Amino acid sequence: MNLFQLIGQEEVRLKWDKLMNSGRFGHAHILSGRSGTGKDSLAFYVAASLNCQSENKPCGDCRSCRQFQNLEHPALQLIFAMPRRSASHTDPFAGIKEGEMTTINAELAKKVQWPYYHLQIDGANDIRIAGVRKLRKDIYLANDPGTTRVIIILRAHKLNVEAANALLKILEEPPAGSVFLLTTEYPERLPDTIRSRCVTHHVPDLSWQLIRDDLVAKKGLDQVQAEICARISMGDLAAAHRYAEEDNTFWLDRIRNTLNALAREDFVSVYQQVLFLKDKELQTDESRQQFLSLLILFFRDVALKIPAGETALWATQATQVNKLFPDCDNRAVIKAIERTKDALARKVHLQLALTALFFELRKHLRGKTQV
């Protein structure tokens, strides 16, 4: 029974079912993969399966399954980034006002309704030591017989240094009957000491066709708009659902304008593109990332030389780029954009990063550098 709406990961689910029944499950696992592939949904599925008393796990009918579905099971401990409202090192909720707590609960309710939802909590920039110390205080208490205590750490790469060190001490001597599931898009940001004590499992990307079909079925989009949202999302189902709330066809015009600017030799064309992308009245951090993702997708199609008719988006533009820039180093182009996406996520100087990107793209289009 698909309690947690896990989409398109049947092979992964079967692998976990086999692992849970093998008797060699282990106590700590990292679920890694791009955002929106279903890592959290899979973690909830595993937690419910470990505690379901029925033969077909998770059954969805027993009290345990229902509690896990609502993220209310007493054996579940959910850790995620919280706002820093107090200097307390033992209570992650210290200093949280009533209104803020209401907002946090509302965000968790959205997560219950749809496990792919990303919690949006103001000021929740990291997972601090208070949350892990509270876990250490609670985890060694007696557990109900026949249950497995499951600790799920969402976006575990947000553990700060103190919290990661505190977690390591628990992982080194975990209490019996406990399982840790850490979900993350960036496993390399976790300390080596933590990764060495966990088994890492990759959750593969979702195909854009599967996401497109999901958007058509659940959001009522037409095929073209669903394809745009699906392909922009780069395998991120949650992002695709957000994009489905917008009119994304205008991004195709932005791609065309950007290609025209890159084809010219003047500085003004690049400067105009940078001004547009840095304009806080027109853009947000998310929309800039969305545009860069779309640009990556375009150059992947250019590299694959997709025949006209294979995509509803930009077959003509892809053909033109191949004719205008036969020596284009598409791999270097894509890597440059990916580096910029990561840099912007780390809040580097916006205008400098974008200007550097566009001039680097010009060089790679003409094949003047190699990576």
Can you offer a commentary on this structure?
The protein is of the alpha/beta class and 371 residues long. It has 2 domains: 10-202, 3-Layer(aba) Sandwich (Rossmann fold); 249-365. 51% of the residues lie in helices and 7% in strands. It has 16 helices and 5 strands. A 5-stranded parallel beta sheet has the order 2-3-4-1-5, sandwiched between helices. Helix 1 packs parallel to helix 2 (39-51). The longest helix has 20 residues, at 285-304. It is globular, with a radius of gyration of 23 Å. The N and C termini lie far apart (47 Å).
Q: List the uncertain runs.
A: none
> CATH superfamily membership of the largest domain, which one?
P-loop containing nucleotide triphosphate hydrolases
What's the main sheet like? 5 strands, parallel
The CATH topology of the largest domain is Rossmann fold
- How do the helices and strands follow one another from N- to C-terminus? HEHHEHHEHEHEHHHHHHHHH
Give the C-level CATH assignment of the largest domain.
Alpha Beta
> Percentage of helical residues?
40-55%
Sheet with the most strands: spatial strand order: 2-3-4-1-5
Structural class: alpha/beta
The gross shape turns out to be globular
Name the average pLDDT. Answer: 88
Distance between the termini: 47 Å
